Batch of 2 targets.
Target 1
Amino acid sequence: MSAEAFNPNPTIVNTGSSWTRRKSASERHSLWITDEDEDDYGSDDGEEPIDGDEVFDLIRSISDPEHRSMTLEQLAVVSAPQVTVTNHKNHVFVEFTPTVPHCGMSTLIGLSIRVRLLRSLPTRFKVDIKVKPGSHQSENAVNKQLNDKERVAAALENPALVEVLETCLEGAGRRGQPADA
Amino acid sequence: MEAAERLVRTWVASPRDKEVEDTASGIASGEIKLLHVVKALGEYLISEEGDLRNKGVDFLAAVLSKCPPQFFNRQSTKVLLGFFTSKLDDTETVIPALRGLLALTAVPSLIEADAVEICTSVFAHVKMQALVQAQRFIVFSIFDSLIAKQRDALRNMGDTFLSAYIALVDGEKDPRNLMVAFAIARVVAIEFDISRKVEDLFNITFCYFPITFRPPPDDPYGITADDLRNALRSCLDASPLFGSPAIPLFIDKLNAGSPVTKRDTLQTLAICLPVYGPGIARTMARKLWSSLKLEIFQPTDAVTEEEALKTTQVLIKTIYADDSTPDAEIEGLAKDACEECILILKEPEKSQAKPAIKVLSAFMSTTPSISRYTLSHAIPHLIKLFLNPDELPNRGAVLTLLFSLIAAARDSTLKAASSTSSASPEEAPFLLPYKDEVLGALITGLKTPSSTLAAIEGLSALVTTPGLLEDEEVGFVVQNVNDVISGPREDASGVIDAALDLLTAISATAPTHVSESTLPLLFSALPDRAPAREDAAAREKYRAALSSLTRLCSQAVLFETLVVRLLTRLSLLCSSGASSDDPEPAAAYAHALLTTLANVLVKKAERGDVDVPKYIERLVPRLFNLLFFSALVDREGLFVATGRIVTVAARLVNLVIQTLPEARQKVFVDTLVAAYLKGEVGQLAAGDLKLPMDDRIAPFEPGATESQGNLVAMFSQAIVALRKEITISVGDQVEFLRKLLYWSVHEAKNALQRESAWHIIAAVVNKRAQDLDSLLFPQLAEFWQSEIQPPNSADSRRLAIGAWTWVSKALLVRSHPQALPTIDRLFELFDDDDVNWDAARAVGLIGATDKILTKKNHVVIKILYAQRYANSVLPKLVEGAQSRVDPRRQTAYLVALTSLIKSIPKSAYEHEMPTLMPLLLRGLDLPDTEIRANVIDTLLAAAQSDVSAGPKDIKDGSIVAEHATSLTAVMLKNSSVATMADMKVRIAALRYLAVLPRVVRYDVLHPQRSVVLKTLSIILDDPKRVVRKEAVDARTNWYTYNG
């Protein structure tokens, strides 16, 4: 890692204690409240398609390459409204916001999102990852790099890079829960 | 004399401990004189041959160390001392001579001059480098013993002793010797005049810092790095004179060290600084602070950061130990650090603001004047920021910082209050001068959504500071928080929960504010009549209010109000419920109200609140009144018919009865029996609703309606909670149980009624077994014959097996001698096509814990009954499941096995895992999804405990590894929606797949990796979200799984 930090003192957003999915429609319309000891797996029937919230849940706790103790969500690099899922077109679109326009870590952040989704989404989805327009000085270059299959594959051949990626992805399974929970 | 000679000769020929001991005991008993020994040794002591001289001196030294010290008179001490010191310059005898000297150091007749002589001759003749560890240890022990017994002599030697000793011990490396050396060094540093030798002493102690020693595996001496670290620290903080050379060294180590060294340095600094004193601390303050700052603002890890903060506190405390400076005139480090932090706080939303506020919060637990100083600068600054219109978007961040400071101020007052005696005059909270501004800012912040949560946290810290807020100010807080909770319930960030927690905290000290303003607000959200079926919004509103009430009302005063208000609404609903066209919403509303009461009561019962028993008068009769009324009046009986409401009411009854003393239970059970068995309901069910005279409660009578039958649930839950001393007043107990048994199989109309009956039977059998013994078992045998044997229909037999299960359970938990014979009968059914699976499941279920037979219900429970049951049944089940004689029986045994393993604690079957594994794998082929889920859960529990045990203690790892390939395949099959419809099984299987890479070595499962990853990529598209989540976790684990 370079000696000079790109952004030594980034702004943190308050993510709240725990983020819960809105109650499903069926639960809201049921007449009876459920007892505590019934398991909360929900009912067996009914399909729950993958949506933006679910995809956001997958990437929110990836840690920032520059500030390992903080997640992309805490630094407002990713947010739920920046993720769009179009199921009938099998398309996922993720937009992210680098903390400063000259952030040299943007590609790495994008790549970690890419790898996380590569591992966690069904293959039918085409995933586009882009920097928020106007938030980075070399926006086009970063976008191009992130959405070029060949270049992503080539990057994943680099063991040093993969090691950095794995450390960023270590916390991804927390899905917004604090580290000690 | 002869004895001595004989012993000496024997010993020289072949050295054994026995001769030494014999000689020593001879001396102790007076048979042998010390002189005799010396004489007998004579020829050896002066022998020309080095080896013999060595042996001679060695024997003498060994004998001396075994002799009681008081046997040496002044004369012999002097002679022996002279002898041993003279032997020090003989290379052949130096080691035994040291041993002899060590024995002499403990002798009472040793005088100061002798001690000096020992030291001088040791200094003169002993070369430490030439000795091995054990021999150096003797040298250290000599000094240790002299320091303990002849300290003055050594001290009077002055610098001579210090220089020589320091030169002698320099370069020691063995941990065993160092432990002694450090102990000596501490005494020397504290008690000797070291002023001219500080540097030398510093050099021989601080060169060991930081301790990096790691004990070898299976170290027989058991000295840990921590032992050494503590021993060394006791040297480092022994003298203030070490201060000026030590601090630069610590700063060096802090800047350059590994995280472990950093932590060690910080802890050591925190111990040493108070000893080194304010002078040196002040001189070095700036350098120390710039190193500490680095650890706080760019922490390597959380622990180091924490330690750095603690050390900073110690530094500040040391510098400002003299607390007499007027607050306004604080100069030096505290002022600079404070200003530095406040400068950083100008950008409250940035990440560096967090460590800055941590530093300021740490200052709050130093000295009162520093605390006051910190607050006088930080609070006005934060308030100014908060009020600055340009900083409007950052108000949440500002309040979060403010909260940290308030909490720190509170904790320091609390800590001070707990450490000083309560008699001391209560000091005003530090925050008192700023109370109004802070409260104002927090209340303002409460009204902006982005800062609400931070404001609530701040307010919580404020109200929990003792002696800060006036009563009416608390009222003001409550008023404002009420606005928050009456907002929409659907809050993502947990604002309402936080607000309720705040109100709960307030209600602990000032319940009136909450009960007078918050509760009416919440009750007003509860309609008198249930909202119509379509009106989801109204339903959502009352549920929100109820869930708030659940959180809030466990405090005694509030709970009393809650009970009164909710019961009123229930009566109203009950009397009008039947008249409406669609009674179900009303029933659901009543259920929600009762569930609220139950949830709060559960919390109170768990806490052991003393006000629970009084609800036998205030709540229980009203509940019976309500439900009896609706069972009698409401012909459709929707309230009781569905069973849901009765179940909750029964739970409430159960919780209250559990807490009653024996005498009160006795009175109650009589009224209960009168109502249920004789129809005399007046006493039990007193309340607002007037029960009709023309109909009566008779749930056990043939032809009773389903509604009436459901009332048995409340009867049952009351009986279950009785203490074991209570007999139910029904005349013949056995006859009562017999009737219940047949009622449960033939008359009961649904599962609720049947189980209620079984619970009564189980509770009575368990608690009153001594009254029943002789008559009960013939009755049971008859029941088996007439109900469980073939001519009955399969359905009826299944029910009878259910009853049998509960009787067996009741006997088993109290380890009754008839328990196992009773259970054994179930095995007779294993080759019966109709009920063999049911019987098999029952065998397992009997070992499971449940909510009825619990300590709280005063059940007689013998410890480890489940283990004992497992030990006696498991081998039989394993054998049965392995035998291939009769496939039908074999399957039944397998079913029983899987059901049993799910019910018993892991420790009961752990050791059998190698045998069980293949059977469990076969269990995964059974078509029953319940069984599959059980098996996977069992395997998962075993694997997870392996993960938490760490790689060293993995027990089942090798068994899992042995079956890893087939386990992987079968789990993949069970996790795909195409081959497994049941979601629970899919989730369990995926969880197992996720844990596999952690318990099995990579080389074992390496061939499966690509298949697993590929199959899981399909499962990522599961229709259910919870399943997808598990699939993602499993797949991630397999991705990062490599050698």
Target 2
Amino acid sequence: MDFSALIVPALLAGTAAYALGKKVDVYGALTAGIGEGLSTIVKILPSLVGLLTAVYMFRASGAMEFLTTLLSPLLQKLGIPPEMTALALIRPISGSGALAVGSELMQQYGPDSYIGRTAAVMLGCTETTFYTVAVYFGAAGIHRTRYAVPAALTADLVAFLSAAWCVRLFFGT
Amino acid sequence: MTMAWIWTGMVVLSLLFGLITGQTAAVGAAALQGAQAAVELCLSMAGILCLWTGIMEIMNRCGLASRLARLFRPLLRCLLPAASRDEETLAAVSANVSANLLGLGNAATPLGIQAARRMARGCQGIASDELCRLVVLNTASIQLLPTTVAGVRAACGCQTPFDILPAVWVSSVLSVSGGLLMAKLLSHLWRN
């Protein structure tokens, strides 16, 4: 029995049954949540159109290749595939930018390739660091952030390394 | 404004590189393809993304989120001892962590901000060690089901978009630990 084949139906049925047992309006909650998902899509669409336009141009012009060859020795030493260069660079700065670059990698190499999987894991285990730091410290009225940014970027770097490493371990290259 | 510079930079560099490599026609075509691909991507990932935000909302309403939150209290007491002495801050932080875990970003951020505000009292605008830790906790995404990424994978024709889950979980845990360790290390070096 494949665990990952079971996870989706089991989660759907389990959650619904448990919630109904708790007298929650399951269907109302489901549709409300779906509405929220739709507004997420609407929110990311404009920046995705803008960014994918730039990413496609960047790739077609050969600039992406240049950037990749420029930084790949460094990344290769760390065990990160050089195709990840652009993704790793934009991830802490822009969430939708990273989504655009990452989805482009998945489309180009296939979602089940080593590159595609690593890109997906990288996206899944990191956040838009600079945005989060700005929101939290801005709201709390903090102007001296001390070591928060270097510590948060360390977490990103560990996430990138571990994503490449975990995909190699679980799925091979 | 950062994105304005990045976007303009990318487009200008694309034009320059296109001129150098003689690929200007391809660059022009790529611009239009990119815009179209973005809309197609959004449409094809919308279904799976919406379904999962729906499921997460059910989990939220049936009390699973607050159960998760209770589970995290002991851990957060160790991580943020001073903040945990204030019951309301502890409640906000644990709700923040559990909302992050369920991928309820819209719910997580206000809760986290509420906690950060309370923790920033008496800090005179200088981040305390615990505030830095709270931010690291939030910048390193800890999510049980990365629904957006799964949506993109499904849109690319992947049959099992969730098969990356173990890899995502391991990487998330390692990344949070790495960030917190670095914070611990830097807190000794960074006196003010």
